[in-house]
Amino acid sequence: MQGPIPVVLPHTPGLDVAGTVDALGDGVDTVAVGDRVVGFLPMTGAGASAEYVIAPAGILAAAPTSIPLADAAALPAVGLTAWQALFDHAKLAAGQRVLINGAGGAVGDYAVQLAKHAGAYVIGITGARSADRARAAGADEIVTDVTEPVDVVLNLAPVAPERLAELVTLIRDGGVLVNTTVWMPAPSDEGRGVRGIDLFATSDAAQLARLVAMIDAGELRVDVARRVPLAALATVHAEPGAVPGKTVITVGA
């Protein structure tokens, strides 16, 4: 990941931050001291796994009021990835069929919810351990093989290149494949007008505010798998495999 995220060691990790504004830089008037905020930090700077974080004011949105502040840190990167994949790039519309490969993961959970809220028919591909999670998010079907064509494919899983190419064949003429595994370019089918798009999510405070509004309106659920104190951060990064859902690193009481 040194290509898209050229960090210099030692590095404080963590892209998602939720907290209370403690101080302001010169000329900042979009937030105030004491505001509860959430944001997706720049990928090359010092990250969120600390007691104090310096964040550009322009990336911050007001935190949800309906969930604990710490839990709001489970939203930015994955929520924005799902939103940008479905709406900025795939232009998903009501009535369309969308296939989400990796529907049981952290991004997949938001993608299923957002696609359903938009009026799409959602088909999920996921492992047996996370199939119930995808159903709970609102997936209409959980499958291992797709037989009916779809309008949009969202690939969130590190599949083999040949499997990614197979997903293109499931898309109707003029459809879209959005791929988040950026180390493996998205294939396309120019003859049928099927576009392949590689997505690397960007920070967007307006989109984040929209997601926050959906949370507070009860239209979007934040799934936190566990909460771990900052002192135990190293053990979280050392764990093999992935934990379904998001792990929130907490600071203080």
Structure description:
This protein starts with 15 loop residues before the first strand and ends with a strand. The mean pLDDT is 92. The protein folds into 2 domains: 16-75 and 203-250, Medium-chain alcohol dehydrogenases, catalytic domain (Quinone Oxidoreductase, Chain A, domain 1, Alpha-Beta Complex); 77-198, 3-Layer(aba) Sandwich (Rossmann fold), CATH 3.40.50.720. The strands form 3 sheets. Strands 6-5-4-7-8-9 form a 6-stranded parallel sheet, with helices on both faces. The chain is an alpha/beta fold and 253 residues long. α3 (131-137) links the parallel β5 and β6. 38% of the residues are buried. Helix content is 23%, strand content 22%.
Question: What's a concise summary of this model?
Answer:
Helix content is 23%, strand content 22%. The protein has helices at 76-89, 106-117, 131-137, 161-168, 205-216, 233-238, and strands at 16-20, 36-40, 60-62, 97-101, 121-125, 141-143, 150-155, 171-179, 195-198, 224-229, 246-250.
